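DATA SHEET
Item: assembly model
Revision: 1
Owner: S.N.
Input lines:
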Amino acid sequence: MSENHEPENGRPLPAPRGSAGEVIGVRTGMFGANDGGDTSGYGGLVRPVVLPGATARPYGSYFDEVADELEGALEEQGLVPENAIEKTVVDRGELTFHIAREHLVRVARTLRDDPALRFELCTGVSGVHFPHDKGRELHAVYHLRSITHGRLIRLEVTAPDADPHVPSLVEVYPTNDWHERETYDFFGLIFDGHPALTRIMMPDDWQGFPQRKDYPLGGIPVEYKGAQIPAPDQRRSYS
Amino acid sequence: MGLEEKLPSGFLLTTVEQAAGWVRKSSVFPATFGLACCAIEMMTTGAGRYDLARFGMEVFRGSPRQADLMIVAGRVSQKMAPVLRQVYDQMPEPKWVISMGVCASSGGMFNNYAIVQGVDHIVPVDIYLPGCPPRPEMLMDAILKLHHKIQNSKLGVNREQAAREAEEAALKALPTIEMKGLLR
Amino acid sequence: MSTSNHADHAAGAARAASRETTEGTVYTVTGGDWDEIVQSAAKADDERIVVNMGPQHPSTHGVLRLILEIDGETVTEARCGIGYLHTGIEKNLEFRNWTQGTTFVTRMDYLTPFFNEAAYCLAVEKLLGITDQVPDRASIVRVLLMELNRISSHLVCIATGGMELGATTIMIYGFRDREMVLDLYELITGLRMNHAFIRPGGLAQDLPPGAMEKLREFVKTFKKNLPEYDKLATGNPIFKARMQDVGYLDLTGCMALGATGPVLRSAGLPHDLRKSDPYCGYETYEFDVPTTESCDSYGRFLIRLEEMRQSLRIVEQCLERLEPGPVMVADKKIAWPAQLAMGPDGLGNSLDHIRNIMGTSMEALIHHFKLVTEGFRVPAGQAYAAVESPKGELGAHVVSDGGTRPYRVHFRDPSFTNLQAMAAMCEGGQVADVIVAVASIDPVMGGVDR
């Protein structure tokens, strides 16, 4: 994460609209192979990988209303909204709240119970692994749907690889039971407070967390007559 | 019309092998071993339009102990592999295996950590059936080819001899990568 | 504990000593031990056993494993074991380009291939920012295919559900009608299953000649066939006795467990993404969202029947609306350059198109080569697109890092979420009702495990 979005003295610096965004990695070259010399001439190409950064108000659509209600409801509970909500991103017509992980359960409960918010349905958690986003490698992404108001928002929580703990949302949304087990199974994210966090997809004695970026695809080379094609992750490909 | 017209004065002359093969192939009992997409096509093959009953095998047995054909229909995951082997072990001899679809035959497009790259790593396969998923017609073709194989299978000493010959041929066979010629 | 053990040991030693005679140890048939065991078994009055159903079992949809703790005929605890069909599709997608992704997602829930493709493509289009540029004809054909798919999926659910009750006739009927839908798929996409026909930006190709007539013919035939399910099952006393009040899950339970689709609608809430969060122009079609208040398997069966009728209505509206036009976005940097044609061995590259780019235009050839081998780049960010699949809310969470391949694709499959409700539906009921309850959720393990 870039430093300027870090809360300072409890007040975040709102990023200007259309900011450079959040650099999560760097892409070099054009083709996947790095073993030989640079015959393509594209080897010196360096491009940063930039995710959309924080958005300044107004967010547009129903997003302002949701953000106001959420901040108001959190303040009522004696919580400084800026501490709980690290940043708010509006991108491609979707609203994302980046939540500090220690406040996740409180925020989710508020989103569910506040009559003006009423996000009754959680569509589960999706893990994303950004190995180059130092200190925030593991992201857990929740999509919440309000049937009452016909709205959809996204919560995003991050955890470092060294301390892959995120509070469990099962007590708020029981539907997350299997979803959290799945994310644990694939990414090694430990959901504190989950009733039985065990592997769900892979065999119980499986080693490693297969959908992390540092876990290989695990394919085998395919043999043809007189030729061999490496597994998809070993092939030379565009990057 | 049938066999009886070719017979002189009501006698049927055959070998024990031919007779045993004939009865065996005429009522093969497949075990229901549906795994993925191919299982749906396997069910379709058993249903009205394709009507597997014409080949005396519409009854899919729920219990492997009553079955002699295992149609591995779909991708076999690492977690399913031991179960598959156990089901195969529970089937009584003689038994045959059709590896239905490209995932069961070679892992197919799912060349990754989760899928066994070919069910022949776990059980011996008699017929490999390509396709993703194979059409019901292709499954029936595979079944007919298997019937042919069952009809001509050997018994007793001949069986041992055939197994020895097959093994010697397999030992002499070139690995795929050393083969030459067109990719077919 | 230890004292009683000592006592047992002492008693056993005494008994063993009494058996020792001059002619060796004598065992009596009545035996002291057996009486005790029989008595203790009779005293416990306990028939509590744990039964493993699956993963290979004829009536669990695919490779589902049910672990049931049963007391006599009553299920006291029920748990699911899943993952026996885990295919790693989400990981595989990260090594293929964006267009190739449809080939993988279509194989997730193999009974609803068009919904998987549509959810994925809608998410990719959102990331690309071309949602508005998808041509009308492409959207209408997408709706048409999705509604046909809803019919074929519900038919399999009803057919296999009936078979699991022992009603083989309904299975034959269901597969008979499903074959008609599959014939249409084959005509339109070239494949019976796993089509990869809906692509980011539109469709793989236009409807083939003769498709409209076949579609109209199908609508006519299926309208005639649909009432047969009513005649066969809806009023059938045995069918009703097996289905009514079985697999009960009320609205509170549905909301807590995140159940969507027919399960939620059988609890009386008319929640349907086609109405509440329309995509592909669903807001312009006329159809109803059926609900019941019964919360049980029978209600879900009725809802599925009614949804097939509504789907047929939508298909008819699609047929009226279809106007000739493009089926792919105009942006040549995204639109798949290949043109497909039906050859003698099925759908493949159009030979005329290949002749044209190979023989006449070097630039077209370069463009074709770049787009097919490299693919297009998708700006970094994330998007979530959800469609109402026959099983419920099917969501695709797609993350891009600005490359030519997806960074992460996660599918929120309705079967996976709804299957969690199995325990709530089955515990306290009969063993035989477990099958009915699971069938009424209609889980497809390809979607559950992915």
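QC remark: DSSP finds four helices and eleven strands in chain A.
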